[in-house]
Amino acid sequence: MATSTSSVDTAVDDAAADDRPVMQRDVVDDWILPLITFFAVRLVGIAVLARFADLRGTSLPTTLQLWDGKWMLAIARYGYADVPATHTDANGIHTPDTALAFFPGYPYLVSWVAKLPGLNVYGAAIIVTIFAGGFAAVAVARIGRWCATAMTGADESRANTTGLVLLVLFAAAPMGVVLSMAYTEALFCAVVAWSLVGVLEKRWLLAGFTAMAAGLIRPTGIVLIGVVMLAALIAALGLPRGKTGTAGVKRGGWRAWTAIVVAPLGFLGYLAYVWSKTDEPMGWFDIQTGGWGTKFDWGKATFRFVNHTLINSGEVAPVATALIIVATLVLVGINIAARTPWPLLVYGTLVTASIVLSSGLMMSRARLLLPAFVLLIPIAIWLANQAPRVRMTILVAVIALSSWFGAHMLTVYPHAM
After folding, report:
1. CA–CA distance, 30 with 178 (Å, rounded to integer)
2. Hey, which end of the chain has fewer CB within 10 Å, N or C?
3. DSSP letter string over 252-303?
4. Does the pLDDT of residue 2 top 80, yes or no?
5. How far apart are CA 112 and CA 108, in angstroms?
6. pLDDT (0 to 100) of residue 25
7. How many helices (H) and strands (E) does the chain have?
8. Which long-range contacts link 403-406 to residues 24+ away (Cβ below 8 Å)?
9. What is d(CA 289, CA 219) in angstroms, rounded to the nearest whole number?
10. What value does the mean pLDDT take over residues 406-415?
11. What is d(CA 321, CA 309) in angstroms, rounded to the nearest whole number?
12. In the structure, what pLDDT confidence band is assigned to residue 292 with cuts at 50, 70 and 90?
């Protein structure tokens, strides 16, 4: 009996010892490596931006709150009703309703964080952006790993590499600099990425509540909301699907129905709030169209911009923006051919369509397309399959070009955001 007990104790101890490295490896792969990778890329971008700012006679803190960043900080500091009249729309006009064009998720979160001792609104905004960027990084890498396994049957090592490559491409996107600014993109991409993780892994409460949060941060959240609701409905009804997600994750049931119900609440709630303030059911859309010229036009404005720019423009920023638009459309085709999992493909395609098929400030398109990062998945898979030297050379070049481009857009070109 003593021998038996000793054997059991030894087995338990051995199992515990075996579990410890596995847990450590999971923490490293799931959190530590993505965080280190993301912030390393962003630190390079920030260093280049700081140098540009110094050479251009401005400062890094000033640069990190340009354009819409000023609106975010003003709403966080004063609330919607008391934003100073110096903040105007694209036509140079300020009305009591102008600030309502900006969704409340980011500025209100900043205002809450700013209540902590020793913080001002700007410091709170940067802290929110940093933490949001970190959470986005973890989820983006997780999506990359999932897709590498689901799409190519990659082993664990190759899947981890794919996740990190996708993360580098995301952090070093052409306007990846906005992920370090007092802007909504870092927070929005964080909730989007975790919501898509929830869809892929059939974690419906995660998917539903993060989609609800996305609807409070940016209008593009409506695309994510639609994808989450459709995927949850398919699961709730037990309809046939193709490849499944993570083994052992429950599908359907009350969690899926809950996701369907809660996902649109943030977006619809804010539209209802603007309706109550403007006495117009389409109040938010009217503010956007009147103040920034944003409306659905089937891509006419984008086509004119790309056509005219690629033929006539001699400036770096407009030409690069036009090429980014074209490249994103090409990426949609690549993802269709690569059979990217349908929730990611539909989300990325509809985000692209919502930007390309609408009018507005064309120079903001590179920034607005950043949440369509899932379209980079086939490129990440391809790079992960290359020799390490080739992969690193390409990624270093991407980081360098992105760092220069972001700094150029913020400090040289006058209307970049």
Report:
1. 24
2. N
3. SHHHHHHHHHHTTHHHHHHHHHHHHHHT-TTHHHHHHHHHH---B-TTHHHH
4. no
5. 6
6. 54
7. 19, 0
8. 403/44, 403/45, 403/47, 403/48, 403/49, 403/172, 403/177, 404/48, 405/174, 405/175, 405/320, 406/45, 406/48, 406/49, 406/174, 406/175, 406/176, 406/177, 406/178
9. 13
10. 86
11. 9
12. confident
Smallest Cα–Cα separation from 409: which of 56, 14, 9, 27?
Answer: 56
DSSP 31: I
Distance CA 115, CA 57 (A): 32
DSSP 88-156: --TTS---TTGGGGS-SHHHHHHHHHTTSTT--HHHHHHHHHHHHHHHHHHHHHHHHHHHHHHHH---H
Q: With residue 14 as reference, give the H or E element that holds it.
A: helix 2-27
Q: What integer is the mean pLDDT of 389-411?
A: 95
User: In Å, how far are 23, 121, 198, 325 from 149, measured between CA atoms?
Assistant: 20, 42, 17, 29
- What confidence score (pLDDT) does residue 1 get? 39
β partners of residue 24: none
Amino acid identity, position 250: K
The overall average pLDDT reported for the chain is 89
* Tokens coding 361: 């400030």
* Amino acid, res. 100: L
CB 88 within 8 A of CB 77: no
Angle, CA of 302, 303 and 307, to the nearest 5°: 120
What six digits make up the tokens of 55?
Answer: 């050479």
Task: Read off the pTM.
Answer: 0.90
| Lookup result for tokens 């980079």 | 376
**Residue pointed to by tokens 């070093």:** 172
Q: What is the 3-state secondary structure (H, E, C) of 148-189?
A: HHHHHCCCHHHHHHHHHHHHHHHHCCCCHHHHHCCCCHHHHH
φ/ψ of 138, rounded to 5, equals -60, -45
Each residue of 209-265: pLDDT tens digit?
999 999 999 999 999 999 999 999 999 998 865 444 444 444 578 999 999 999 999
98: nearest Cα among 283, 250, 351, 365: 283
